[in-house]
Amino acid sequence: MYQKLGFGRQSNTKSTLVLMIVSLVMLVAVPLLQLHRVLTTLDLNLNMSLAQREQAQENVVRPIWEEDWTMDWTEPCTFYERGTGPDRKSVGPLPVILMALGRSGSSITWSTMSALTGERNIAWEETGGNENTSALFFDSLESNQLAFHNWTLQRLCHIQQHRTDVSINAGIAGFQWKPYEYAVEGLKAIGKSVDPKVKVVYLTRNPLDRRISNLHHALSKQAQQELPAHCEADDVECKKLFSAVANSGVTLPIGKELIRWLNTDANHVSTIKANLEEARVEYLHVQYEKLYASDGADQWMKIFRFLGVGPMEDLTMDDVRASFDLAVTHSKGRNESVSNFIEVEKTLKGTKFEYLLFE
User: Fold this and answer.
1) What is the 3-state secondary structure (H, E, C) of 87-120?
2) What local confidence, expressed as pLDDT, does residue 76 receive?
3) For residue range 211-237, what is the model confidence (pLDDT) as tens digits?
4) Rg of the chain over CA atoms, in angstroms?
5) pTM (two decimals)
6) Nearby residues of 330 by Cβ (< 8 Å), 6 or more positions away
7) What is the DSSP letter of 8?
């Protein structure tokens, strides 16, 4: 699985030729992209609307082509001294990676974590937002002669030092990693890092709910009412749109197809954990349901104790919700969201996945 520099898959002749062409294009594109980055990031600040931030993520921060692989990422970079902010002797945000699949609540989770640890900032999907862009990202590591085996540390350092929305007052700074593919050398670099110690928060969500969310977005596209990725907490119209889509039931696979898919998902989670442990990465596995559907804030305090920054005691869910800048849009039960819930329930009853019906 980890071939050729430990970054990705073995390349055949055709893909190698494509990657060579990509590298040549990058030599021309990089200077233009650097200018683009300067102009566009002038407007990147915490006061921008959610729509502007999502547009910025679409247009400004993209693996391979945009700011994260321009020349300055190859420049030497030194982290701030270890610490959690200006109220301590040492300063600077802690380097953190949030690992999660799509529709797992990663954006609101990072936004809340950063807000409660110092200053709110954004964690872009540095390694790609889906399987295709993830494959392009890791292929680029193989072909780009400026890539580092410790690309994870390079990116974290430059985010901490140079991102315009990350100040020295922030408690954490980092990026989202959608774990469609893995780069063993990047994981090993994290595991070996001591000063600073890089922390990974691995967020998972009930796979049935992820699938429901993806299907709702697909239905909205068919109805030409495409949902935004998220709603701002005070955006009533956006939340109404989400609610309307949620009222249209979706159909999940049943029988052997559902069991096969859930087994694949479970194996994926096990593989991620095994790779993190093998690389000796210090990570914490947290569940979406315990973060957002619990009466208490124990799971949030568990995160902050793991990070060593943020409210570690006496935190309430009222405190957590007060920090939300994005809306949580999972109000309906599965029996209401899924048109064929009875068939799904029959499929899962008596199996190791039965608990997913009630989680």
Assistant:
1) CCCCCCCEEEEEECCCCCCHHHHHHHHHHHHCCC
2) 79
3) 998 887 676 665 556 656 566 766 666
4) 21
5) 0.76
6) 209, 213, 292, 293
7) B
Reading the block at residue 34, the tokens are: 């650097």
What is the pairing mode between strands 94-99 and 199-204? parallel
Distance of CA 242 to the CA centre of its chain: 21
Alpha helices, DSSP H, located in the chain: 13-41, 50-59, 106-117, 131-143, 151-162, 184-192, 207-222, 236-246, 255-278, 288-292, 298-307, 317-322, 334-337, 341-348
- Per-residue tokens: 151: 């690309």
Distance, in Å, from the CA atom of 164 to the CA atom of 40, rounded to the nearest integer, reads 11
Instruction: Match 């990072």 to its residue by tokens.
Output: 110
Count of CB atoms situated within 10 Å of the CB of 94: 27
Residue 334 near residue 209 (C-beta atoms within 8 A): yes
**Distance between CA 156 and CA 186 in Å, rounded?**
11
Q: In the numeric block, which tokens belong to residue 322? A: 């007060």
| Closest residue by Cα to residue 140 from 271, 25, 272 | 25
Distance between CA 241 and CA 190 in Å, rounded? 41
